[in-house]
Amino acid sequence: MEKNTHSVERANAYINNHHTEVNLEYKPEKHFSAPIGWINDPNGFVYFKGEYHLFYQYNPYDSVWGSLHWGHAKSKDLVNWEHLPVALAPDKDYDKDGCFSGSAIVKDDTLWLMYTGHIVNEDGSVRQVQNMAYSTDGIHFEKVEQNPVATADLLPDEVIANDFRDPKIFEKDGRYYSVVATKHKDGVGCIVLLGSDDLLDWQFESIFLKGEVHQGHVWECPDYFEVDGQEYLIVSPMRYQKDGNDFVNINSNIFVTGHVDWDKKVFVADSFKEIDHGHDFYAAQTTQGPEGERVMIAWMHTWGRPLVTNDLGHKWYGIMTLPRVLKNSGDKLLQTLPQAVEEAFTTVAIGQEVSVGKISLPITGTSTYRLGNNEDYLEFGYDAEREEVFLDRSHLIIQFSGEEEWSTKHRSASVKASLIDVFIDKNSIEIFVNKGEESLTSTCYIRGTKNLR
Ligand code: FRU
Fold it and tell me: Catalytic residue numbers?
């Protein structure tokens, strides 16, 4: 068997020696992206010693998925990110085929990471286990001797044990809990709850929430949290069944509203809602900021689509969405931008050439805007008759058909709009409707001039 030669040192040396080879043409200015290589899910998003830390699924060596490390950066304002050394490399038997997604928690001034070790056995079968690592300086991480701290042996028979990943930790009444993605034998998504008093010895607590057949078969990247007293679960379902304007991407991301019955340790779900109605939004993760605010960030892509910047040979692929603060307003969960993030964009006007900028557009009736030039443009706007805000990639030269058996060119959110706030950052657009009631997030790779008209 080929020897695994991964290490944090090797990854950091590679990044230092090669990051200048990246082609910056489509690389964002105001969104997080890695110095070189591939990124997917945000991981371990946390506020530690006065700064936000963001980790992410990272393959420094290539702009495609593979040999997953945890990349790492920090920021005081969620706009300016400082790249830090790679935090985790797949260098142990229990994570040899990838340090998969997970989360972070601060305990006694120490930053703890809980992540999934992905192991491919010689016969090709897969095993996923949960591991812990910690750091006191917030830069160098040590994997604990007790790893793996949770294996599929803990799980009841009704769960398919080779999908067991993406632990998201939280604390309640002095005990630590972790929601983890699995697949139920009934072929549906299933979130399990693990519990621990010390972060090292973990027990199975419950089947936290089991999905229904139309809701997809694995619910990746769970996250449980509260916003102003209302409880939510985020999950990223694979193949949630398309329903009108919802779940048009086969891999989507949802907010589940409900509450935990702590006697039974189950999540009682009230409603399911797609988080974002654009083409590119997956694996959202949240953390709590210094004022108690809930900040969410997601991967601004989804699976099964062409990897444009890789195919162009630009040596990077993957960006994160803008960080969004979640707020409750009546029965709506609003996604708002932190002030520093909003202020990082300069205001632009219709008729202007735009590479990076923001614009607020009051909506009084049907309106269509274009970003690009006559040969190559993205369309967005509002259809007053259908009461839909839309984003349309039909007229882009670089097209994006994915694994979906239907067209995803046109995406829309059903909402009566009075205002849209639009943020453009080279290869991406994020539209917030009625101050965050709905959002549409998409990438677009336009050649030549980008006029807004
Ligand atoms: C979600 C996901 C996770 C997994 C990771 C691997 O995008 O599939 O479930 O941990 O990516 O990179």
Answer: 41
CB of 221 sitting under 6 A from ligand 1: yes
- At residue 416, does pLDDT exceed 90? yes
Pocket test for ligand 1, best of 59, 64, 100 (most atoms within 8 A of CB): 100
pLDDT in tens, 241-286: 999 999 999 999 999 999 999 999 999 999 999 999 999 999 999 9
- 325 and 357 share a domain? no
Query: CATH number for the domain including 415?
Result: 2.60.120.560
Q: Is 99 in the pocket of ligand 1 (CB under 6 A)?
A: no
- Mean pLDDT along residues 319-336: 96
Please tell me whether residue 339 adopts helix, strand or coil conformation: helix
Question: Do 331 and 354 lie in a common domain?
Answer: no
Q: Name the residue of 38, 43, 55, 57 whose CB sits within 8 Å of the most ligand 1 atoms, as the mutation to test its pocket.
A: 57
Q: Are residues 79 and 198 in the same domain?
A: yes
Predicted model pTM:
0.98
Cα separation, 141 vs 74, whole angstroms: 15
The answer for 343, left when phi > 0, alpha when psi is -120 to 50, beta otherwise, is alpha
User: The domain spanning residue 259 has which CATH number?
Assistant: 2.115.10.20
Question: Distance between CA 30 and CA 356 in Å, rounded?
Answer: 8
The total of structural domains in the chain comes to 2
